[in-house]
Amino acid sequence: MVNVPAVARILGGSGVLHRRVRSLADLRQAVEDGLPVDALERTVAHFGLEPTMASEIKHRIVPKSTLQRRTRLTLEESERLERLARVTALAEEVWESADLARDFLVTAQPQLDGERPVDLARTDLGARQVEQLLMRIEHALPS
Fold first, then answer.
1. What digits encode the pLDDT tens for the residues 53-92?
2. Spatial distance between the Cα atoms of 92 and 113, rounded to a whole number of angstroms
3. 63 — phi, psi (to 5°)?
4. How far is CA 24 from the centre of its chain?
5. Nearest-angstrom CA–CA distance, 98 and 43
6. Which of 6, 69, 78, 98 is the most interior residue, by most CB within 10 Å?
7. Both ends of the chain: CA-CA distance in Å?
């Protein structure tokens, strides 16, 4: 289950998205239209990381040279950003703390073959792995 309001908040809310996002259909449409570059900035800022790590995460979604020329993200870049925001929202829900969620997302996890969840969220299957792990944690199921 996707917590659409939480995802929209992480992406910067209606002020950044220039629309109200209340349903999965609203979120899908925003992604299909291309999320604003400001949504990338807001999402990365949401983590509160030191600049080098924040830049690394941002440029894994959109290459630096490409980012400088854009106001909107492509569909593929928007999908990557939405996945990161969705996984972040779920982690915050499970950990009940933005700080604990951030630590989980940026730290290599043994249950994910030593990968960082923030890196796995770049692909659909990787995000599903992270979501699956978070749901096991939420429901206290063995890994």
1. 999 999 999 998 888 888 999 999 999 999 999 999 999 9
2. 22
3. -60, 145
4. 15
5. 13
6. 78
7. 20
